[in-house]
């Protein structure tokens, strides 16, 4: 029988960062991070998780002029899967830390800014 991983959510309170052309680190201390983009090239990194099974959700919350944020998963399942790009408001990605890398579990988009966690 397979081993089961029970997802861990460290803190459900959302934190919010504003990304710029200087790389911003995304906190692994909370489950949700909302990203506000500015008018330039927006970049962020997701550092190693804290515990096996940890979940992390990243949401493109507010759009600057350029509207895109490129997120590098510092430890990813493979080099082909180490970059996530969120272009539009409401796009999100959910990742799970499996002990040595992040695995992308889900990505998608909500229909309107009203649906985004406030």
Order of helices and strands: EEEEEEEEE
**CATH domain class:** Mainly Beta
Percent helix among the residues?
A: under 10%
Mean pLDDT: 81
Number of domains: 1
Distance between the termini: 41 Å
DSSP, total strands: 9
Total number of helices: 0
| Strand composition percent | 35-45%
Low-pLDDT windows of residues: 113-118
Q: CATH topology, which one?
A: Jelly Rolls
Spatial extent as radius of gyration: 14 Å
Structural class based on helices, strands and sheet pairing: mainly beta
- The general outline is globular
Report on this structure:
The structure is a single chain. With 118 residues, this protein is mostly beta strands. It has a single domain (15-115), classed as Jelly Rolls (Sandwich), CATH 2.60.120. It is 0% helix and 42% strand. A hairpin with a 4-residue loop joins strand 8 and strand 9. The radius of gyration is 14 Å and the shape is globular.
Briefly summarize what is shown:
The protein is an all-beta fold and 118 residues long. The chain has strands at 15-19, 24-25, 32-37, 42-46, 55-62, 69-73, 83-86, 91-97, 102-109.
């Amino acid at each position: 029988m397979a081993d089961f991983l029970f997802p861990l959510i460290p803190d459900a309170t959302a934190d919010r960062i504003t990304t710029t052309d200087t790389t911003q680190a995304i906190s692994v201390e909370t489950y949700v991070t909302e990203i506000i983009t500015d008018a330039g090239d927006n970049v962020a990194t997701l550092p190693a998780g804290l515990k096996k099974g940890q979940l992390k959700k990243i949401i493109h919350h507010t759009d600057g002029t350029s509207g895109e944020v490129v997120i590098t998963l510092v430890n990813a399942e493979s080099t082909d899967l180490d970059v996530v790009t969120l272009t539009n408001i409401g796009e999100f990605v959910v990742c799970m830390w499996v002990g040595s890398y992040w695995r992308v579990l889900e990505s998608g988009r909500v229909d309107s800014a009203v649906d985004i966690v406030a």
